[in-house]
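hiii, so i know i said id send this last week but things got crazy w the move. better late than never?? heres the sequnce for the chain we talked about at the cafe, plus the structure i predicted for it. fair warning i was half asleep when i ran it
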Amino acid sequence: MMQNYSSPVATARDYYNSPDADNFYHSIWGGEDIHIGLYEHDREPIVDASRRTVAHMADLLGEPKPEWRVLDLGAGYGGSARYLADNHGCRVTALNLSEVENERNRSINKARGLDSLIEVIDGSFESVPAPDGEFDVVWSQDAFLHSGEREQVMREAVRVLKPGGVLIFTDPMADDACPEGVLDPILERIHLDSLGSPGFYQQTAGDLGLKPIGFEDHTHQLPRHYGRVREELESRETDLASQISPDYIERMKKGLGHWVDGGQAGHLAWGIFRFRKAA
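okay and structure toks below
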């Protein structure tokens, strides 16, 4: 069934459905986990650092319980959903806009015997196909930036949370003091007019009635991660030539460089937000 997507979400959907993007993210970015990692050192494998982010976020929830219903917004290949299902027995709904990623997600879930705990849904987080108060936890990693209507995404997260439920998420953001115009190379590359910021998310959460639990600032990990991804891409460029177009690789290296530069200049922010819905 066709769905109506906002322009930024439709652009992101087309991008992540492309063979070049699918091969790049699955091969280079981290495989199951396509988000920013928590690195212990600069040479650590991307997949290890990315999985550490998932494990740490789960730890921040306390001890996730088997009876919990979790919604992962922008679930990608489903690595986080599988972690929560496999390690904690949670029932997870993985909502994601890329049908290509979702098919890979479903295949992995079935191969690992987790398909009974994980439901993969094609859709947009701007209009979540779930009733009010359905989930104990709404989880997201580095996905909200792809919406031009981030307040609406937050509103949907609050709507589907149970009273007392927790919203936990990360997102690549602009620093609250970021000068105007300096992020234009990044925004042009990802076809957006803006990024969120820590202040934006904290203000929006408060306006929606969420109570802050905490914000862990891991901004230094953002340029570190994008730099590692660029290094990995450059080191494997020859081997990937048959899977990813040279034009895509060149544009990706340039785009990753913009993220590294923005992070090192102090214009970007990244960390883990936690908010609770009133009981």
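btw The beta strands are 69-73, 91-96, 118-122, 135-141, 161-170, 173-174, 210-217, 268-269, 271-277. thought thatd interest u
miss u guys!!
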